[in-house]
Specification:
It is built from 11 helices and 5 strands. By secondary structure, the protein is an alpha+beta fold. The protein folds into 3 domains: 99 residues; 146 residues, no CATH class; 71 residues. Strands 1, 2, 3, 4 and 5 form a 5-stranded antiparallel beta sheet that branches. Helix 1 packs across helix 11. The longest helix is centred in the first third of the chain and has 73 residues. The two termini are 67 Å apart.
């Protein structure tokens, strides 16, 4: 009787356990199902909203398109050209400020100051419509800057300042290459602008002084490394002669083991030092080529600008989309207001 009673209790316990597990799975599947139902309901609600208001949205888009066409017919064609530059010695900030200043003159329609700044005629000055500058985003710039940072600071600082922290502090001005874009109603004005834009930074006394000192240091380091390289080559020649002389002394009791530890160590040290100096020379040559000027010009403005075209840059298309979005926003506000009024009741 006792054994039978125990078996019944075990069967009841197992049955309860399976029921709990089954209920858990059922709740899980119901939860996942409700998520998919919610997503489906959300998309259906959007489709119903668009279906009920498609005429209103279409009218708003058409009105925006019509206004855009009217503006486009009245306005002249626009052209643009880009210049790629690489600012050195932290001069990017000054360059950005200057471009912002030029753009403010255009916004204020200050033709007189534009004429004076760029030394152009009044008609050409009035044709300028926009100045912008932005960095060419390149992840390698962040990695290379972090590598330089590690080489410059001590180990303790590196441990307390990881790559993610460095990346978070990396600003748009810290990227190497920047693109200057100019928009004008005349297609042949751009080659009159680049010299003025660059000279406003290049002629800065502070940047020029930093450039001169940097290049002096680079030239001095270059000469020193080349001298060291020549000395190492001389040492290798002397070392080879000594080894050959010792090899000739058959009866002196000195034997040369070509695979010996001492020979291998000395040769490896010389080759390793030679390799390091050559690597440093490569870096110096690269720095000299990049830092020879305050601003390196990667590519100048094209003499003839390209006409601004394309659907996404068409003002009629932009106003059409803006009109549709504005109508959707207004309809949503009306719906929310209606819901709030019903909720209070």
């Amino acid at each position: 009787m006792s054994t039978s009673h125990n078996n019944n209790e075990e069967e009841v316990d197992l049955g309860s356990l399976f029921k709990i597990i089954g209920k858990g799975f059922q709740n899980l599947f119901n939860f996942i199902g409700n998520i998919f139902k919610g997503i489906f309901h959300f998309f259906i609600s959007i489709l119903i909203f668009l279906k009920d208001n498609i005429v209103k949205i279409g009218i708003a888009a058409f009105i925006g398109f019509a206004i855009g066409v009217f503006i486009q017919v009245k306005s002249a064609d626009k052209y643009e050209s880009q210049m790629l530059v690489q600012p050195n010695f932290k001069s990017a900030n000054q360059l950005y400020n200057n471009i912002s200043y030029y753009n403010d003159l255009v916004k204020q329609k200050d033709t007189a100051n534009i004429q004076k700044t760029f030394k152009i005629d009044k008609e050409t000055a009035a044709s300028l419509k926009k100045f912008t500058i932005e960095p060419i985003i390149n992840e390698n710039d962040i990695i290379n800057s972090y590598n330089d940072f590690i080489l410059d600071v001590d180990t303790t600082t590196v441990k307390s300042y990881n790559f993610e922290d460095f990346k978070a502090s990396f600003s748009l001005l810290d990227y190497k290459i920047h693109k200057i874009n100019v928009v004008s109603e005349k297609s042949d004005v751009f080659n009159k602008l680049d010299e003025v834009i660059l000279s406003s930074v290049i002629k800065n006394k502070y940047f020029n002084r930093v450039k001169e000192l940097t290049n002096e240091n680079l030239n001095r380091t270059d000469s020193l490394l080349r001298t060291n390289l020549a000395q190492i080559d001389s040492l290798r020649v002397v070392y080879t002669k000594v080894m050959l002389e010792e090899a000739k002394k058959q009866n002196s009791g000195t034997s040369i083991d070509l695979g010996g530890k001492m020979r291998t160590t000395k040769e490896l040290e010389l080759f390793e030092t030679n390799r390091k100096i050559n690597a440093e020379l490569e870096d110096i040559v690269k720095d000299k080529s990049e830092k020879y000027e305050v601003i390196n010009v990667i590519s100048n403005f094209q003499p003839i600008g390209s006409e601004i075209k394309g659907v996404t840059r068409n003002i009629a298309f932009q106003l059409s989309v803006l009109g549709a979005l504005a109508m959707i926003f207004i309809l949503l506000l009306i719906k929310i207001n209606s819901y709030l009024n019903n909720y209070k009741k």
